[in-house]
Amino acid sequence: MESSKIIFQPSSNIILKHFNYFFLIKIVIKELFFLIFFKNY
After folding, report:
1. What is the DSSP letter of 8?
2. Transmembrane region positions (predicted)?
């Protein structure tokens, strides 16, 4: 049980990191989109 936990932990950490990066990229794209949108008007 403990050994499997140790094996699982890093992969879940990597997945969480990737999810956080994805979320940040989404926010940045939204901000850029709104900037461009408001600049055109």
Report:
1. H
2. 21-38
Structural domain including 23 reads: 1-41
For residue 23, the one-letter residue type is F
Look at the chain and report how many structural domains it folds into: 1
Distance CA 16, CA 33 (A): 26
Instruction: Report residue 14 as tokens.
Output: 């990597």
pLDDT tens sequence across 13-34: 777 777 888 899 999 999 999 9
Backbone Cα Rg of the chain: 18
Residue 22 exposure: Cα atoms within 13 Å on the Cβ side: 6
